[in-house]
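Exercise 7b. Backbone tokens:
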């Protein structure tokens, strides 16, 4: 009998089975021998994949990407550099980063038919609803990347996979900026070849009629840090949705739309918007005590405080406060 096993006895029948323990986990299929299914309501204690991409220690407030502490990456890297690290497993060389940046930024432009599609939404459409829909629509603009049309072999082609990575990274800021501009009743801005990734996003969001508009460098850097901090966070809801949809063999754009839909929820990425709405509802400092009293009485929810994983502090919050 190994010290690295779990002995399980079914008291109904007296049947005993030995289950191997590997990295503090057990293979639940072993319980099939006892005619049992493991029930974990809400996935509160279930691991469904092995990953070397990110690591979290909630008790100690640690977040790492590919072994690098998030504090170091936020201080020394850019979002596109961190994206390369997450996807390929190592930080790029200077030459690799230059080529990576060029390829991504080359894909920031979207088809004119996509612009027509975005303009067809109601004037008061929610930007995330527009974004989710336009990401899904991207699959119709790139039929060569459709598994329905080309088969699942597209996932076996490194060049084809990389092309979709460039498209997703490049076009998402443009689609998001157009959705925001639509909501505020402004004309859409085309991407600028003269600006970096995050600067370009701010440019598309905020430019009015200026011919030489450039986003404030401190704001651009702060937003780039925010992008880094949100680039990966283990198997959260939207990541799980992406993986589950991809397991069916569907094309990457529809999978990404599903992940964005999950992010839309107020208990996930939508909590950011919910926190802002809460602050607007509170309105002024003198209204805070009454609001907190309602929270304690379970009449209202306090958004933006606390975290299911981080029990001491969220390392991202410390970095954001500095930024």
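Sequence design result:
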């Amino acid at each position: 009998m190994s010290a690295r096993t779990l002995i399980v006895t079914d008291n109904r029948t007296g049947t005993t089975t030995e289950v191997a323990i590997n990295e503090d986990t057990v293979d639940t299929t072993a319980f099939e021998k006892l005619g049992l299914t493991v029930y974990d309501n809400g996935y509160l204690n279930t691991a469904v994949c092995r990953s070397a991409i990110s690591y979290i220690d909630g008790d100690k407030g640690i977040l790492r990407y590919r072994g690098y502490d998030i504090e170091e990456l936020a201080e020394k890297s850019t979002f596109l550099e961190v994206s390369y690290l997450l996807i390929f497993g190592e930080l790029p060389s200077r030459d690799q980063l230059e080529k990576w940046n060029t390829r991504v930024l080359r894909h920031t432009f979207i088809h004119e038919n996509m612009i027509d599609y975005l303009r067809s939404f109601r004037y008061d459409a929610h930007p995330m609803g527009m974004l989710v829909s336009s990401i899904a629509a991207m699959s119709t603009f790139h039929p060569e990347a459709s598994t329905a049309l080309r088969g699942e072999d597209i996932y076996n082609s490194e060049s084809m996979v990389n092309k979709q990575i460039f498209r997703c990274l490049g076009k998402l800021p443009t689609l998001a900026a157009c959705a925001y501009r639509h909501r505020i009743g402004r004309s859409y801005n085309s991407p600028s070849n003269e600006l970096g990734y995050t600067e370009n996003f701010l440019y598309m969001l905020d430019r009015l009629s200026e011919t030489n508009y450039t986003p404030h460098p401190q704001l651009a850097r702060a937003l780039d840090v925010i992008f880094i901090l949100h680039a990966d966070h283990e198997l959260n809801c939207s990541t799980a949705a992406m993986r589950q949809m991809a397991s069916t063999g569907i094309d990457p754009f529809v999978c990404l739309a599903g992940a964005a839909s999950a992010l839309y929820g107020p208990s996930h990425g939508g909590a950011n918007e919910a926190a802002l709405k809460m602050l607007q509802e509170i309105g002024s400092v003198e209204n805070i005590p009454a609001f907190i009293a309602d929270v304690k009485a379970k009449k209202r929810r306090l958004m933006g405080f606390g975290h299911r994983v981080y029990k001491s502090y969220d390392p991202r919050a410390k970095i954001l406060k500095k930024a």
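Instructor comment: Strands lie at 5-9, 16-22, 25-26, 54-57, 62-65, 68-69. Residues 69-263 form a domain with the Citrate Synthase; domain 1 fold (CATH 1.10.580.10).
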